Amino acid sequence: MVIEVKSSFKKKLREALKGILNENEMKFLPSGFQQIGTIVILNLKNQLWKNKKVIAEAVQNIVSNCDAICLNKGAIYSQFRTPQIELVVGKSTETIHKEHGTLYKLDVSKIMFAKGNINERKRYPKLVKENEIIFDFFAGIGYFCLNIARLANPKKIFAFEMNPIAYNYLVENIQINKVSDKIIPILGDCKTEALKIKEKADRIIMGLLPSPKDALPTAFQVLNPEKCIIHYEGLLRDSDPPEILLEDVSSINKEMNKKAKLDHIEFIKSYRPHVNHVCLDILVN
User: Fold this and answer.
1) Domain with 121 in it: what CATH number?
2) How far apart are CA 194 and CA 189, in angstroms?
3) pTM for the complete prediction?
4) If exposure means fewest CB atoms within 10 Å of the residue's CB, which of 4, 33, 48, 272 is most exposed?
């Protein structure tokens, strides 16, 4: 999870916990936090878990617009990328997060929200042309399609999501943002559901890690044969050329007798030391 560092946060937290934690425990206090909507998520060292409630109460007094404090207890898991989140202070893990004017309703204990992808969510609407038909293969709660529908003028977006919880939030977020005339939510696996759509895609968003290579054959079957942009995400080491990721597409490209070329590579964020999360914008015609 991305941690938002606040310059005076740790100092204020130390002052609030003076006399409650000993000096050794003070050393393990976090220097920042993540805030999604009105919920703050803390990463605490194991040494502080026994003090999680008193720390959470102190944080709630420091952070403005905060209804609940949660503890991040581990890495995401399962096919649906479920967070390991524990509610420590507050009544609910559900919130509405606002970004670029778009509203995202979600439950942070059930749905991952990657704040590090903020620039990518801002980038797509600038790329979309008038009346495009877009397939969002892994729509989630509407991470990308909501912004596109609000800030660009696509003809239609088919948003596929197989996680029932995420899908329900996607449907709700479409209503909240008043874009039901632009987005068609579809519950199910994009690899089968996309093949049922009569329209062909001018743009396909494949925003999933690790790289969704198994969905590429479907993408090549549903794209507009005249011209289509595929946004294909993946991980690259500092020393890797983008052609390594492009090989995933090239192998399918040859089978389908299409021409594909790398139009742009976008750095999204650092994934871990010397490994970057990137998006390849691939032109297929």
Assistant:
1) 3.40.50.150
2) 8
3) 0.91
4) 272
